[in-house]
Amino acid sequence: MEKNFPLRELNTFGFDVKAKYFQELKSMDDIHQLVDNPEIKRSQVLILSGGSNILFSNEFYDGFVVYPNLKGIETLEESDKAVLIRCYCGEVWKDFVDYTVSKNLYGLENLADIPGKVGAAPVQNIGAYGAEVKDTVYQVHTIDLTTGKIKIFSNEECRFSYRNSIFKQYKSFIIFAVDFILNKNGELKLDYGNIRNYLSNNNITNPTLKDVASTVKTIRAEKLPEVGVVGSVGSFFQNAIVSEDKYLEIKKLYPEVPSYPADNSFIKIPSGWLIDKAGWKGYRENHVGVWDKQALVLVHYGGGNPQEILDLMGKIQNSVKEQFGIEIKPEVNII
Ligand code: EPU
Hints:
By secondary structure, the protein is an alpha+beta fold. The chain has 3 domains: 2-68, Uridine Diphospho-n-acetylenolpyruvylglucosamine Reductase, domain 2, CATH 3.30.43; 73-183, Uridine Diphospho-n-acetylenolpyruvylglucosamine Reductase, domain 3; 231-334, UDP-N-acetylenolpyruvoylglucosamine reductase, C-terminal domain (Uridine Diphospho-n-acetylenolpyruvylglucosamine Reductase, domain 1, Alpha-Beta Complex). It has 8 helices and 20 strands. The protein has a 5-stranded antiparallel β-sheet, with no helix packed on it. A hairpin with a 5-residue loop joins strand 10 and strand 11. The longest helix has 19 residues, at 306-324. It is globular and about 60 Å long. The protein starts with a strand and ends with a strand. Bound molecules: uridine-diphosphate-2(N-acetylglucosaminyl) butyric acid. Uridine-diphosphate-2(N-acetylglucosaminyl) butyric acid binds at residues 128-129, 192-193, 223, 234-235, 238-239, 258, 270, 272-273, 276, 281, 294-296, 331.
């Protein structure tokens, strides 16, 4: 256990945050020992993974940061059609995706290059370019830090939905491994956004799994700031889910508004579009701003503090509310 531990390298916003207590966990033994540590029972606990979806609102975290970092990838079962793979929480997500693509396994190719680690992927049901991790998760292995009990969640028990799962509530549960079912032959998902355009512009008429993964990487690199170079957490806000009436009201004023169907006849409007339309794209104030290629992304240019991002967040929310009557919610986990 370390004290007053610097987290600057462990949050992709790159803020100079310190934690009162910090412990990295590299094995199941480490986890069991931590359960018996009296300090963990007394403290407020935060389970941190890649730090790519977190905003510390304060520069001192007055609690215990737990950093599970178990490594390993194992093939558990294999049939003619599919493979069951266990991946431990500390593996880097994008490397895991590259590994599955190199083995010609279908399912994760549209999720290429998402920052973060495998253990965090189920928490917010990461998604991009027409895929969500929930479509490949078989089960999730957890241990509850408060009791030391292991619990395995089936896909259904994870209660996945858009950028959400049961693990957002179960804050004392460490996800130490995730089992995925990946197919040996699958259908490629090419319908989201520009994927087909990119492929045809590059004269790829019969795309392979690798073509899709590399197309997704190219599109991401064009739209999103590079992790480790510019501080960000990818999408800062969730997309807005509105009633059909609200959508029609907006469409009357802005016929070009993009939209996607959401559950229960609600409609999803990209918050990036709302923020862009409200004039924020490329806005900069001191050390923080709105990314000029994707308005859903707030960035920290260095030397700033979390309050600057929170202030900017509030201004954007107010402005979108005023112009469209929609309350956009953060997607990032604010601590
Ligand atoms: N748009 C604008 N202006 C902008 C940004 C977007 O007009 O500044 C419009 C686009 O033209 C498009 C629509 O909004 O019509 C959607 O944009 P995009 O395809 O870039 O996706 P998004 O809805 O803004 C979501 C995810 C991203 C994911 C992309 C691609 C959320 C909160 N975000 O963004 O996820 O990469 O789709 O699938 O659902 C993340 O979670 O960190 C993340 C980056």
